[in-house]
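Why does residue order matter? Because the sequence determines the fold. Keep that principle in mind as you read this record.
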Amino acid sequence: MDYIEFQKILDYFSYGLYAVCSNKNGKLNGQISNAVMQVTALPPRVVVCINKVELTWEYIKESGTFTINILSEDAPMKYIGILGYRSGRDSDKFSKLKYKLSPNGNPILTEYCIGVIEANVIGEMDVNSHTLFLGEVIYGEKLDEGVPLTYDYFKKIKGGKAPKNAPTYRFSEKELSKKTSILYECAKCRYIYNSEKGDPDNNVEPGTLFENLPDFWTCPLCGNGKRNFRKLG
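Structure:
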């Protein structure tokens, strides 16, 4: 099968968007993941898929435990960017986030999170670039009302893209609309600025052309400056 066609078929898969977190000797880290699923009901067990280069992978391997935080649709792009497009090796992500600790000392997000579960690792499977961690659920808590954030909503409504370390990263050709002249892509995280939508989280109104953005405007996901965007089309 042609690889491009294969990628298009994979795009029909449906995913949630979660913050998978862990700790190592009291140090906290977490990342955005869409490769999360429940595999059994009794006993309740879940699987998360984490890239081996990620700091969260290292923490889960060390502690043997993790939390899955279920994000809500109203989570701002900047919030998702802190968790998903910046490395915990470069900065303390949780210095910018509101959280509490789980029974095993893992982060539980208390903002833009509607529920959380914690699991102990009971099995692993090497899948080349990633590891599947099988976890038995030991704790769960409903935190708020709201609609769970899905990967489809993240892409279509918020304009997000999967980073290169994500299991769902697409190496397909870009199929752009007729209005490609209003689209600009961040060279670092692949976030696309669409002037029709603007950037409401940062008070940029719909209809604001990229060239009219203030010089201090930065990518809402990774913090990259305007000069690091390129025009699509």
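Residues 169-181 have pLDDT under 50 and may be disordered.
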